[in-house]
Amino acid sequence: MNVKISQTADIQKFFQEASGFGNDEGSPRLKRIMLRVLQDTAKLIEDLDITDDEFWTAVDYLNRLGGRGEAGLLIAGLGLEHFLDLLNDAKDAEIGRIGGTPRTIEGPLYVAGAPIAQGEARMDDGSEAAVATPMFLEGRVLDLDGQPVAGAVVDVWHANTKGNYSYFDKSQSEYNLRRRIVTDAEGRYRARSIVPSGYGCDPQGPTQECLNQLGRHGQRPAHIHFFISAPGYRHLTTQINLSGDKYLWDDFAYATRDGLVGELNFVENAAAAAKRGVDGRFAEIEFSFQLQKAASAADEQRSHRPRALQVQGA
Ligand code: MBD
Ligand code: FE
């Protein structure tokens, strides 16, 4: 067709009505966003000759995606969560808010309310002792001048040896591999945990179903997530992705970034193991964070993205 139906004045007026522009109720912000969604969706349908069957397949897909709780997973897999990082990086650069540890995506598997410990914590419940490699993680939280930030909260979470996360994987104990560690006077945090495995999307789930159609895998390299926060400093959401993993630079969620690659140092030394209180082979990893100063109170807070909250003992 020569004339684009979606661009005619009649259709534009119709979508304005559907977005609530004909009334004084509701949210002006949402109306503006919805109008754009409808306009752009209509344009896409027309430009790409989306068939009715394709359209209703997509509607059904959204139902199944939400039904399985995988919307956040697909957003990560399509690179949109990483795009938000790139956008925020560009905004920061424009106003000279540079320096410190790079941000990278949170992902969909955080759970609020993990146990808090002072200075150090054991993160694993010991249930995988027979198969897991003990991991000793430590580092410091510093400001941009390299001065320690005492009393910072290092909220850390990672997967088990199967690549699964507690809470979402009901076979794990509550808050397994999730802790909040408050830094000591030197800005230091220490954790004993286990070496995580990379995550893979459920092969039967709707996210992998879409990735299959794109000819893509749904694997992440082994990684450790962090929220770092402290009064007066800008909240940091980041991860360390572990070197040596075949997916390190082939992450389906695009989270790996320069400056965020962590090196596991495997140690096989009986005396060193005894000193650490473990038997046999273990791993060490050191990673420190540098925080920007907060420019406002809101800067100190993480985003208000809805997150799971497990009540301890429940
Ligand atoms: C993860 O563990 C993760 O970090 C992301 C971003 C997506 C899926 C699983
Ligand atoms: Fe993860």
Structural account:
- With 314 residues, the chain is of the alpha/beta class.
- The chain has two domains: 9-50; 74-309, Sandwich (Protocatechuate 3,4-Dioxygenase, subunit A).
- It has helices at 9-18, 28-47, 52-67, 71-77, 80-94, 206-213, 270-276; strands spanning 111-112, 116-118, 120-122, 134-143, 153-158, 178-182, 188-194, 223-229, 236-242, 261-262, 265-267, 282-286, 289-291, 308-309.
- It has a six-stranded mixed sheet, with no helix packed on it. Strands 3, 4, 7, 11, 12 and 13 form a six-stranded mixed sheet that branches.
- Strand 8 and strand 9 form a beta hairpin.
- Helix 1 (9-18) crosses helix 2 (28-47) and helix 4 runs parallel beside helix 6.
- The chain starts with 8 loop residues before the first helix and ends in a 5-residue tail after the last strand.
- The mean pLDDT is 97.
- The chain binds 3-methylcatechol and fe (iii) ion.
- Residues 73, 76, 105, 107-109, 199, 220, 253, 255 line the site of 3-methylcatechol.
- Fe (iii) ion binds next to strand 8.
Please specify the SSE layout and strand pairing:
Blueprint: H1 9-18, H2 28-47, H3 52-67, H4 71-77, H5 80-94, E1 111-112, E2 116-118, E3 120-122, E4 134-143, E5 153-158, E6 178-182, E7 188-194, H6 206-213, E8 223-229, E9 236-242, E10 261-262, E11 265-267, H7 270-276, E12 282-286, E13 289-291, E14 308-309
Helix pairs in contact: 1-2, 4-6
Bound molecules: 3-methylcatechol and fe (iii) ion.
GO molecular function: catechol 1,2-dioxygenase activity; ferric iron binding
Pathway: Aromatic compound metabolism; beta-ketoadipate pathway; 5-oxo-4,5-dihydro-2-furylacetate from catechol: step 1/3
EC number: 1.13.11.1
